[in-house]
Write a structure and sequence with these properties.
single chain; alpha/beta; TIM Barrel; 2 domains; four-stranded antiparallel beta sheet; 17 strands; 30% helix
């Protein structure tokens, strides 16, 4: 039984074949789910009959379509632009985990900025987050915790990783498939070749060719598995900076993380912009698919300012984000820009991690806005020009 907010109900008898059943339900005058109109329906399954019910289960879900056509991502048949963030479940005091008040605050801040999406980097979030996204009309790229996969070690280890990835993917899709906010499955983040960062003979020897074959079979297999388990959504993995473009041939669309101007071309914005712009064009020319940039940004210490291009200043972060968004606006095939990150978060200690923190958030860990947040509000809300 499907029940809308207006109280109208549609009922369909269920007949089991063993312990499984499939039911097609026609909802007349359906109200589709979208960020602008996050319409939800109550779907109830009852066992038994009206005179003698045995058990029942109800969930909320929405009805919508998502597909790629040419260079467009279509939601309910209409082109959409993704504006959002990668983020983490993290907050002062309690650390890595979900807290309902923080979740509500985060959704409020995303809407204040004009964002319509986030990526669950790099693991599925608490189920309550998806339920709230359904209600708020926020799009989700749902990602499993397969980060930094490699394909050049012992075949026994590669096979074991594939087994674990298969299980994680099945569990993620089984749990989250009824959330209309989830528009995309991400099967891996930044799988990396052995030659990452090196151009010396990359891809020209037998070992590299074999690694390339294994990687494409592994990643393509995960994408195909995602499509088999759920053919109603898009499937992809996020490409690492410097990674092979042909690994992404299996994806419905291209999703990439890029940090020209931060990890490379430091302080040299003209060169960083040329590299970023040129690579976007090459990826599109080679693969002919829409592109969503799932990570870009720079660390900024809240309250640290500079009158020149100084790393870790709020001005540097703001300038880098602004430059990337400007470039995206010149590329009609770029259909999404997702800043890394929504808020600062604690990470392992390293030379690039001030106070053991990743400071790429446009908000501080306790959700105070940096200059970059005000920039996004101006671009995504105040200007109202439909661009990034």
């Amino acid at each position: 039984m499907v029940t809308g907010k207006d109280g109208k109900q549609v009922s369909t008898p269920i007949r089991f074949n063993g312990d499984e059943t499939e039911v097609d339900i026609h909802v007349p005058q359906v109200k589709l789910w979208s960020p602008e109109s996050p319409n939800l329906y109550d779907v109830t399954v009852e066992l038994g009959n009206a005179a003698k019910p045995i058990d029942s289960y109800t969930l909320q879900t929405g009805i919508r379509t998502i597909e790629v056509k040419g260079d467009d991502i279509l939601l309910n048949g209409k082109p959409i632009i993704i504006r959002g963030f990668g983020k983490h479940e993290d907050f002062p005091i309690y650390g890595r985990g979900v807290a309902q008040p923080v979740m509500v605050k985060d959704f409020s801040l995303m809407k204040w900025l004009g964002a319509n999406a986030f990526r669950t980097s790099h693991y599925p979030y608490d189920e309550s987050v998806y339920a709230e996204a359904d209600k708020q009309g926020i799009l989700i790229i749902d990602e499993m915790p397969s980060v930094g996969l490699v394909f050049y070690d012992d075949q026994k280890d590669i096979d074991r990783r594939r087994e674990v990835c298969d299980k994680m993917l099945q569990e993620m899709i089984t749990r989250d498939k009824n959330h209309p906010s989830v528009i995309m499955w991400c099967v891996a983040n930044e799988p990396s070749p052995k030659t990452l960062g090196s151009n010396v003979l990359a891809g020209t020897n037998d070992a590299a060719a074999e690694e390339n074959r294994i990687a494409k079979d592994f990643l393509g297999g995960l994408v195909r598995q995602a499509k088999q388990l759920d053919p109603t959504r898009l499937a992809t993995f996020v490409g690492v900076m410097g990674g092979p473009a042909d690994w992404m041939e299996c994806c419905d669309l291209i999703t990439i993380n890029r940090y020209y101007g931060w990890y490379t071309n430091i302080g040299n914005f003209p060169m960083a912009e040329r590299y970023f712009s040129g690579e976007l064009d090459k990826l599109h020319n080679d693969l002919h698919k829409p592109i969503v940039v799932t990570e870009f940004g720079a660390d900024a210490i809240a309250g640290h300012h500079a009158n020149e291009d100084e790393m870790f200043s709020e001005e540097y972060q703001q300038k880098m984000i602004n430059a990337y968004l400007d470039i995206a606006n010149t590329k009609p095939y770029v259909k999404g820009m997702m800043i890394w990150a929504f808020a600062d978060f604690r990470t392992s200690q390293a030379l690039m991690r001030v106070r053991g923190m990743n400071l790429k958030g446009v908000f501080t860990q306790d959700r105070r806005p940096k200059m970059a947040a005000w920039l996004l509000k101006k671009r995504w809300v105040d200007d109202k020009n439909g661009n990034y």
